[in-house]
């Protein structure tokens, strides 16, 4: 099903982008008494990512988020502390003239749901 989209290990859109934004979440934060857990960090970062993507699209830019696995190498490369975890990698730039957007059709409601009367 993904083969027609050309998804594979080659991610040239990342190296061709003028900017690469890495979203880190903090599993813990520094408090007076030491490190304490950060509640709802996954959810907060997910919301922030959505707002960021909407904002850059509103500016005429594009991104294709990527979640490499494992992502620990990003913390090492960017010299981030152990309590920060890379969550999302977003190359940002203007869309290529050669960019192709797949013409996907959505299933109709009866194709994926059923209702009891």
Describe it for me?
With 117 residues, the protein is an alpha+beta fold. The protein has a single domain (3-112), classed as 3-Layer(aba) Sandwich (NADH Oxidase). The protein is 28% helix and 24% strand. The chain is built from four helices and five strands, in the order H-E-E-E-H-E-H-E-H. It has helices at residues 12-16, 41-58, 72-77, 109-112; strands at 19-26, 28-31, 34-37, 62-63, 84-93. The chain has a three-stranded antiparallel sheet with strand order 1-5-4. Strands 2-3 form a two-stranded antiparallel sheet. Strand 2 (28-31) and strand 3 form a beta hairpin. It is extended and about 55 Å long. It starts with 11 loop residues before the first helix and ends in a 5-residue tail after the last helix.
């Amino acid at each position: 099903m993904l083969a027609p989209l050309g998804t594979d290990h080659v991610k040239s859109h990342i190296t061709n982008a003028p900017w690469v934004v890495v979203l880190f979440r903090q599993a813990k934060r520094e408090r007076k008494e030491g490190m304490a857990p950060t509640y709802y960090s996954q959810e907060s970062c997910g919301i922030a990512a959505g707002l960021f993507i909407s904002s850059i699209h509103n500016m005429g830019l594009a991104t294709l988020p990527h979640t490499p696995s494992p992502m620990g190498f990003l913390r090492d490369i960017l010299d981030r502390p152990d309590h920060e975890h890379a969550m999302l990698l977003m190359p940002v730039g203007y869309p290529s003239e050669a960019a192709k957007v797949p013409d996907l059709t959505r299933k109709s409601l009866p194709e994926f749901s059923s209702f009891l009367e």
